[in-house]
Amino acid sequence: MKQYLMYLRKSRLDTDYEEVSVTETLSRHRTTLEKLCRTKRLHVAEVLEEIVSGESLSARPKMQRLLELVGTGAYAGVVCMDIERLSRDSSMESGYIMQILQVNNCKIITPCKVYALQNESDEQFTDMQFLFSRFELRTINRRLVRGRNQSASEGKYMGSMAPYGYRIAKLPGEKGNSLNIEPEEAKVVRMIYDMYGQQGMGYNAIAYRLNDLHIPARKSKWGQTSIVNILNNEVSLGKIRWRHEPSKRVIKDGILTKKRVINDDCELYDGRHEPIITQEQWDLARAAQAKKNHNPVNIERQLQNPFAGILVCGKCGATMKRTVPDKNRNPTPWYRCSRRGCDCKIIKCATVETAICDAMEEWLENYTIQLKNEQQRKTDPIETALESVRGQLASLHAQQDTICEYLEKGIYTIEMFTKRNSTLSTEIKNLQSTEAGLLQQKRDGGRKDQMAEQIIPITQQILDSYPILTPAEKNRLWKLVMKRATVYRSQDDTLSVHIYPNLPK
User: Fold this and answer.
1) Partners of residue 180 on adjacent β-strands
2) Fewest CB within 10 A of the end CB: N or C in the chain?
3) Can you give the pLDDT at residue 20?
4) Where are the domain boundaries for CATH 3.40.50.1390 in the chain?
5) DSSP label at residue 503
6) Which CATH architecture fits 166-292?
7) What's the CATH number for 3-152?
8) What are the CA-CA distances from residue 398 to residues 390, 420, 422 (Å)?
9) How far apart (Å, rounded) are the C-alpha atoms in residues 352 and 335?
10) Radius of gyration of the chain (CA)
């Protein structure tokens, strides 16, 4: 029995059922699609449902899961309300989704139309649909942005989460939100400003004091970052901070995603909410920051360890930590085992990088040859078996033609024909099943080979461009091709390095 997947998505930008909840909208869509499946007798193996915008595939875990399932080749189609539910923004991601569906011969079934992407006209039609959808989305986005800009300028609160000291509250008699003071949290905010601006305490000292007093934080315990956020947020002064962390679209691991970037030149408006602190308290905090001569904490610190989450000790298996003994007198970074008592000696980071790059280069050369040989060995027997099966099928079909002629000429009685045809049909059915199994083996092997081959250009890219990559870029790329690496420097200074490439099982 053919299996199908059902995909349901409700976007924040959807205008359908404006007076209806998201849950109810999805329920209506599901009811419609379930009725469609009953009518068409489609067996739905799994339902994937999510509430996200269609702008970024990275923010759509259910869609990622759907593509993973489709990639197995086990599903005949995807059932959804319309193709815009699959993708609505990036032409690159729309093309990526369609390619996966097309390669795996997976149809798109909607209440209005069935799209067979192997059909040229259906393929062109979906391209046009996505084009119109992207145009519509951009129009909606522009209208939405204008509305949000206007609301911010009117002093309305536009965030989804209230800052510490406040709770989000609906504005009476009009659309939009404002903030109401949370009395207990407001006391803590004033305490933080007093400790920093009046008492001269630092960020960490304030965090320690609050934790010692068992004052609850919004998340976990108080830390440096949470203190900095409160001291640098004008919302406590009665202001609305707009475009402080605008999203920036970036390509990460071949997928379009969004990244928040701090904008120091954000727009400030007078808010509709009451301030927690006075202008004097705010100015004292700014003066204290200038006096201490430190900048606000960089929340998104740049990664410096290219092997973070990868490198472990070859002796005990503990994580190898990157350390800098003295940034002034000895700025050379070293790796050391994080486990106390391990006799693995410290190793210069540059030495480890060189050794791992050399090991990966040697492995890449050997793996390329190995993969080519394995593909040759796997392909030949399957192709040979397929040729044999197809030859037998051709022979059986020829025999069926022959017995039909015998029946017409009176050589076979109907009874003889029926008996012989039944035997031939059974043999044909069995051989067709064998052929399907061999084709599946071939496809599975091809997918695995394709996954295995992907590691070759990525590894080559890392090795070719290694000197110009940042540590963060190196780490991201290494994690694509390497599960882990071990390093051990014995007491006699013998260095041993082992790499474990990220190969498909």
Assistant:
1) 167
2) C
3) 54
4) 3-152
5) -
6) Alpha-Beta Complex (3.90)
7) 3.40.50.1390
8) 12, 13, 15
9) 8
10) 32
